[in-house]
Design goal:
The protein is an alpha/beta fold. About 35% of the residues lie in helices and about 15% in strands. Strands 2-3-4-1-5 form a five-stranded mixed β-sheet.
Length: about 210
C-alpha cells in the first residue's frame, strides 16, 4: 500500500504525548528559509474545519492554516513553515535534502496511508525532560478538574431529577436510576462525553508548553 511520510506534526492534546513539541526541536540551520518556501508550495491533501495554533507564540490561529499539505511523498501541517521561519524549528535531514532538491510535487494515490515512524524516531531523543514533566503534571491537573466537574454534574442531576425506585440499566452498575430515567446520574449518555468535562485541557497544554520559555 502506498504511504506518505508524516513530518512536522506536534503535540496538540495532553492525550497524545508521543508527538514532539516544537520547543524540543529548536536549533540552527541556514537552510530553513528555503525549506519553508518548499513547504508553502505543497498541495492541499486534507482540509479541516478548524485552524491549527502555534505552540510557541500567540500568532492568530488563522495564520497557521487549516490543512495538511503534501508533495506526494511527505505530508505536513500547513503552518509548519511558520515554525521554521520564526522559531528555527529543525526537521530531519532526509526531508531537508528532499525539499532542497525541489522535486516536482504531485498528489499521492487516494489509498495512501501516513507513516509517522521516521518523525517520531527522529524527535524522540530530542525530548526535554522538564517539558515532559510539565506535560504530565498538566494531564494530572486536567484529570483532577474533569473529575471534579463530573462529580458536580452527578450531584446536579440527582438534585434536578431525584432518585427513582429502580436500578440503573447499565450492566454491573447497581445504583438507583434517576426519577423518570433508566440510568443513574453516573451513566446518563452525556456523562460519557469526555470533552464535556475536560474543558481546561487546551489551556493547561499551552501553559505546560511555556515551561521552557
Amino acid at each position: 500500500m502506498p504511504k506518505l511520510y508524516g513530518i512536522g506534526f506536534f503535540i496538540s492534546s495532553l492525550r497524545d504525548p508521543d508527538l514532539p513539541a516544537p520547543q524540543e526541536l529548536v536549533g540552527h540551520d541556514s537552510r530553513l528559509s528555503l525549506v519553508a518556501d518548499y513547504l508553502d508550495a505543497g498541495l492541499v491533501h486534507t482540509r479541516y474545519r478548524g485552524y491549527s495554533w502555534c505552540r510557541l507564540c500567540d500568532i492568530e490561529y488563522s495564520e497557521m492554516g487549516s490543512a495538511d499539505l503534501t508533495d506526494g511523498i511527505w505530508i505536513w501541517p500547513e503552518g509548519l513553515s511558520h515554525y521554521l521561519r520564526h522559531h528555527s524549528v529543525l526537521l530531519p535531514e532526509p526531508f531537508l535534502s528532499h525539499a532542497l532538491a525541489a522535486p516536482t510535487q504531485s498528489m499521492p494515490p487516494d489509498d495512501a496511508t501516513t507513516d509517522f515512524e521516521l518523525w517520531l524516531e527522529w524527535s524522540r531523543p530530542r525530548r526535554i525532560s522538564r517539558l515532559r514533566e510539565s506535560l504530565l503534571a498538566a494531564q494530572s491537573e486536567d484529570d483532577r478538574l474533569a473529575e471534579a466537574a463530573r462529580s458536580e454534574r452527578i450531584a446536579a442531576n440527582e438534585a434536578k431529577h431525584g432518585i427513582g425506585d429502580g436500578v440503573c440499566i447499565r450492566a454491573g452498575c447497581g445504583r438507583p436510576h434517576l426519577t423518570g430515567k433508566v440510568f443513574c446520574s453516573h451513566h446518563l449518555p452525556e456523562m460519557s462525553i469526555d470533552s464535556t468535562f475536560h474543558v481546561h485541557s487546551h489551556r493547561l497544554l499551552k501553559e505546560a508548553l511555556r515551561c521552557t520559555n
